[in-house]
Amino acid sequence: MTAAEVTEPVDGTGTPSARSPFPILQPHTGPIPGDHYLPATPATVLWGRLPCAGDAAVLEIASGESVTFDTVSHEGVLDDQGKDPRAFFGAHGVPADQVLDDAVEIAASVSRDPFADGPHVVVGPVRVAGARPGDLLKITVDTLAPRVPYGVISNRHGKGALPGELPRTPHNVSVFAAVEERAGALFGTLPVVEGGAPVVAFPLAPFLGTMGVAVAGDERPHSVPPGTHGGNIDINLLVEGTTLFLPVQVEGAMAYVGDPHFAQGDGEVALTALEASLRATLRFEVIPADAARAAFGDVTGPLVRTPEFLVPTGMDPDLDAAMRACVRAALALMNGRWGMDEHLAYAYLSAATDFDISQVVDIVSGVHARIREADFAAVPAVEPAPRDTDGGAA
Questions:
Q1: Helix or strand or coil: residue 286?
Q2: In terms of Cα–Cα distance, which of 137, 160, 154, 109 is closest to 261?
């Protein structure tokens, strides 16, 4: 479906209510800025697993085109939350017309093994014409629009940074957080005591926790641990205007997205961030293998680029090992991009680069480094040129 085929809201759907600071983005309503539109339906999502080479694409696009995805948060649809989003959110005072219809449909009709599969709803896969193993898939985050004015932060199943210590209750803890507009900006809100007024406010910084490419073979990966395919990397730098580069592993890349967040602190210590549904418009470009190597050297895992930083990543079940992997990735990037000698790059990283903990709660821990590109303004570097329609670098 293209953007031109999307209808406008009817009967008030999608218009702000007295309790919403922005329009509710039900499926097929509101602005759809992408070249293509991919709603979240039983036919376009996987729940708890990620695409592999054996999966069929739900959409095919050309390199350089954009897709608007309706993503659905897993919070409020899971088995231990009742698998009834209208009842779950209604208990927190959310009107039925502010609960997403696609969340209701997915909870009711998409299969998931709660004991074997992850929690995340992912949309895709999208086949990008011309993408081949060895290439990089460049995913640019154009826009991220909140679909609803609320989200959930959970500490459940004895998981988080303090397993066995929190939660103190034997039951799962899911904290509802309403979104308010204050001085023209959106904030998540919380009370300081259970049942109190929402007097704590923190700014929203929406991003997708999951962006990835399909893995080789016929086995769908679990949705929780991230890896070289990307997946649940939970790097909160991936806000509007940033880019993720992923090594392509199968023909067509077979990209997917999910795990939408309104806000997340580095570490994501309770288990989840402020989880809430987003409408995400992303642009996909294929960077040929030789152009990718010329720009960045050999990229073997997710690489983020913001307007200020190049952000290599390291991942491992052991946080210390993830840190070491990130340092190695940063050294390789600096040599590949700027030709910097290893001992000099190591010194630079120690003096000038912050290494942040992406998350410690997703089986595989993540660390990412923030290398300021402005520090290398005087060093020649090649930009990653996308593949043109004739199959070569543009």
A1: strand
A2: 154
Query: In degrees rounded to 5, what are phi and psi of residue 85?
Result: -60, -35
Q: Domain span at residue 34?
A: 3-148+204-287
- C-alpha distances out from residue 336 to 225, 312, 348, Å: 28, 12, 15
Q: In terms of domains, do 230 and 347 share one? A: no
CA distance 314 to 34: 31
Does 326 lie in the same domain as 214? no
Query: Same domain, yes or no, for 276 and 308?
Result: no
State the virtual CA torsion across 6, 35, 42, 24 in degrees, nearest 10. -50
Q: Report whether 42 contacts 106 (CB < 8 A).
A: yes
Mean pLDDT of 170-184: 92
* pLDDT tens digits for range 349-393: 999 999 999 999 999 999 999 999 999 999 999 999 998 755 556
| Alpha carbon of residue 17 to chain centroid | 28
d(CA 246, CA 250): 12
Please state the pTM of the whole predicted model: 0.94
pLDDT of residue 9: 37
pLDDT tens per residue across span 261-300: 999 999 999 999 999 999 999 999 999 999 999 999 999 9
Please give the Cα distance from 90 to 79 (Å, whole number). Answer: 16
Q: Are 243 and 279 in contact (CB under 8 A)?
A: no
Q: Is residue 14 part of a domain?
A: yes
